[in-house]
Structures are given as C-alpha cells and as structure tokens.
Amino acid sequence: MAVTPSVVWFRDDLRLDDNPALMTAVRRGDPVVAVYILDEESAGIRPFGGAAKWWLHESLTSLASGLDGLGARLVLRRGPAEQVLPSLVAEIGASAVYWNRRYGAAERAVDARLKTRLRDEGIDVASFAASLLYEPWTIATGQGTPYSVFTPFWRACQASSPPRAPLDAPTAVDGWAGQVASDDLTGWALLPTRPDWAGGLRDAWSPGEASAHRLLEEFLTEKLDNYAGDRDVPAESATSGLSPHLRWGEISPYRVLHETDEARRGATGRTAEGASRFITELGWREFASHVLFAAPELATVNWRREFDAFPWPPLNEDALHAWQRGQTGIPIVDAGMRELWRTGAMHNRVRMIVGSFLTKNLLIDWRLGEQWFWDTLVDADASSNAFNWQWIAGSGADAAPYFRVFNPELQAKKFDPHGEYIRQNVPEWKTDGYPEPIVDLAASRRAALAAYDVVTRSK
Ligand code: FAD
C-alpha cells in the first residue's frame, strides 16, 4: 500500500516542544509534511504589522532548522488557507491533517470550513489545544455567559480541570521523502529592506524556541524572587521577556506554567510570591483571549458600548505623530515610545502610561493607539493588544475606571525615580534639544473628564 503523509499545519505554534498537532502526526507513524501558510487574503484575518513580520521571518527560519534537525522539512506556501491547504493535501495525497487551535473569529471560521471539507474528502483531521491553558468555551459564569471581570474568571479557571502536562518535543520526525515545492522565505519579503529599520530589534531579540526556553530558565532561576516587587520598574529587567515568544507559540503556556509550578514547589517568601504573581499574569493573557473569543471585534468596537457616545474631538494629527515618534515633551511617554520604535517592545507599566496619555491627555481614540502598537510591537497580539488598549481607555472588560487618568510625571517619579529608564531612551532629556510638552497635563485631564461625562450621561 502506498505510504500517505500526514500534514502538520503550523500557525501560532512555531515550536517542536509541547506541540500536540506535531506529536499526533509523529505517533500516527506516517511520514510528515510540515507547512506554514502565509495567509494575507482570507476575509477578516488581520495582516501582520511590520515588527511582527520581522519576527515571523526569524521564527520560521528557526523552526525550519529545528525540523530539519529532526528529519523533516518546513514547506512554505502563500495564499488563502482554504485554497492552499486542500491543494497541498491533494498534491501529496495526504491522509491526515493536524493543527493547533486559534481563537480569532475569522481564523476559526476558516478552520471550521477546512475541517468539514477535508473530512468530507475522507481525510483524518484533528485540532488541539496548545496556545491557551483553558479553552474559552469551558469557562463560563453560573449563567453560562463569559466572564467580564478578571478575578472571578481566574478563580473559575483554577477551579476547573488543571491544564495537561506539556509534551516533550519528538526526538525524530519521519519527514516525507516525496517532492513538494516550497516558497523561498526571502521571497515573502517579511524583512524590512529600504530602509532596514530592524537593527534595534535584532539587538534586543533572538526569535525562536531555543531563546524562549533560555529566557524562561533565566527568569525562573534569576528573577523570580524580585518579580513581584520590581515588575513595574521599567529600568530593571525584572520581567520574563516572554511575550513575543508566547505570541508566536515558540513556547507553550503549558510549559511555562509547568516549569513555574516546579519552581514554586516548596518555595516560600518572595520566590513563592513571584511565582504566583507571574502565573496571574499568564491568567491575564488567558482572560484577554477569552474576551476576544466572546467579542471578536475587540480591536475596533468598544467592549462597553456606552463608550460609543464618547465625544472624540477631530484628530490632531500632529499630536498623534509626536506621540508615535516620542516627541511629546513628556519624558516617560517619549522614553516608552522610543523604546517601542527601537526594540519592538515596551515595558508593561509604560504601555499603560503612554496609553492613558494618548487616550486621555491627547483625547485620541484608543483604536489609533492599538493600530500603532499592532504595527510596531513584536508581541502584537489580537487579543492582548486590543484588550489592554480598551482596558486603559476605560471601555474594556474589567477596565481601569475612566477617571483614573495616569499622571505621567507622578508615574515617572514612582516607577523611574532616578530617571534611569528615561535617560536610556531619551538621551537629550534636560537639554535644550528636548521639546516642550505638547499638552498641559492638568488642563487636558479636566477636558478628558468632561468628555467622559457625556458617556456617563448617555447610560
Ligand atoms: P511578564 O511580566 O514576564 O509576564 C508574563 C506573560 O504574561 C507575558 O509574556 C504575557 O504573555 C502575559 N501578560 C503579562 N501582562 C499581561 C497583560 N496585561 N495582558 C495580557 N497578557 C499579559 N501583551 C502582549 O503579549 N501582546 C500585546 O500586543 C500587548 N499589548 C499591550 C498593549 C497595552 C496598551 C498594554 C497596557 C499592555 C499590552 N500587553 C501586550 C501586555 C503586557 O504589556 C506585555 O505582555 C508585557 O509587557 C510583556 O512583557 P513580559 O513578557 O516581560 O511580561
């Protein structure tokens, strides 16, 4: 009987470790064809931003080399997945297709249609949980509705069946020996060329599974003790740096949870506190995804619909531009925005400060902030980015109360007391070359609160 290959379709799971789709194909015993499809055409699937494309290129290179080491090749194809996958399956005569699930509405619709179609053709198709610890349809309130507040959500997660143990990476993959064409990654032009603005990203990051595991190990052995105390201090490298690796699935949340639990076992004091706090942050990641699952338009539609009445003034393009370029004259804001531009990331505390500044002091719609982050963050994530922008703007699930307008100067005093983070990112701070503030903090705060009155009155 002719040998028929199994296809493993890689998406947001660019790893070999704890990859149930890959493991299922390996255990099935037939030769494996691994494929990544660059789908920029399917309706509703949001095209990647610039920093994300850079990361994807590097991550695919790393995944291809990992697969190669195990005996298989990564095939690259481009186009709408609903055309590309079935034609690959037909071309190689595959009898099975496996993938790990994704949670955006458009992505789920594509996957569901593909599942039906391939099964109708007699193909064995299965999908697996690999990117979230808790499947969104398994966590609901007593009334069967999705949670809108984090604390009860996370309590319900922790009271449900514990996440499975992570699976080890296969020691070998029997790669299919037949001919199968692949695109050339360079031809996808994911890397910036004219100009090549990715130098700072290259200095700051090493995409790929190996560095994700290194970062986790380093975090658990060296940073856990100080995590709870220092995680809000941007000048300290006190957090894990795992967000882009989690975003692209280079490391599994099951692996992160498992290793953190191991580190917590028997620990007391600051280590135990650090581990618990870190696991709660993974909980926020889950919450954001569950909220997106229930509200697929999270990047564009106010989660609290009364915010539809918010009276955004006409867009001040100069102010938006100054914010994007880190030229607002508010040092902590400029430091954050320049860190983002240079490295493709920004410390969480500073993300909140720049978000509050944009939406409240500058009265610029949170969607424009979300879009800028989408284009510039290496961890740009459909759920976490939209969720956190709505959180800071006050329109989101379990959001910061609107009237909590961050005062960037007080925030800087508290979290960057020696101005270390500001100096790292704004070398001309305190010189004549540094711009005057583009907005008066006290007056703009008052204007924001007055605008919010309209929302309160519309309820
Ligand atoms: P750690 O402190 O080490 O946390 C561990 C992990 O927990 C993170 O890697 C991340 O996966 C998760 N996590 C931590 N905080 C949050 C949070 N508030 N929401 C959801 N997950 C969290 N995170 C993204 O991954 N992608 C985004 O696009 C994104 N956009 C954001 C936009 C705004 C306006 C704000 C305020 C926050 C955003 N975050 C986003 C959340 C957070 O800033 C980053 O996850 C964090 O800075 C990553 O650093 P770390 O990996 O060192 O975090």
Helix residue percentage: 40-55%
> Which fold name is given in CATH as the topology of the largest domain?
DNA Cyclobutane Dipyrimidine Photolyase, subunit A, domain 3
CATH superfamily of the largest domain: DNA Cyclobutane Dipyrimidine Photolyase, subunit A, domain 3
Percent range for β-strand residues: 5-15%
Poorly predicted runs of 5 or more residues: none
Assign an overall shape.
globular
Please summarize the sheet with the most strands: 5 strands, parallel
- From the 3D coordinates, which CATH architecture of the largest domain would you assign? Orthogonal Bundle
Describe the structure.
The record marks 312, 366, 389 as: Electron transfer via tryptophanyl radical. This is Deoxyribodipyrimidine photo-lyase type I. Belongs to the DNA photolyase family. This protein is mainly alpha-helical and 459 residues long. It has 3 domains: 1-130, Rossmann fold, CATH 3.40.50; 132-165 and 210-294, Serine Threonine Protein Phosphatase 5, Tetratricopeptide repeat (Alpha Horseshoe), CATH 1.25.40.80; 305-456, DNA Cyclobutane Dipyrimidine Photolyase, subunit A, domain 3. Helix content is 50%, strand content 6%. It is built from 18 helices and 5 strands. Strands 3-2-1-4-5 form a 5-stranded parallel sheet, with helices on both faces. Helix 1 (20-28) links the parallel strand 1 (6-10) and strand 2. Helix 7 crosses helix 10 (269-294), helix 9 (253-264) runs antiparallel to helix 10 (269-294) and helix 10 crosses helix 15. The longest helix has 26 residues, at 269-294. The mean pLDDT is 97. The structure holds flavin-adenine dinucleotide. Residues 231, 239-243, 246-247, 281-282, 284-285, 288, 348, 351-352, 355, 373, 377, 379-381, 384-385, 388-389, 392 line the site of flavin-adenine dinucleotide.
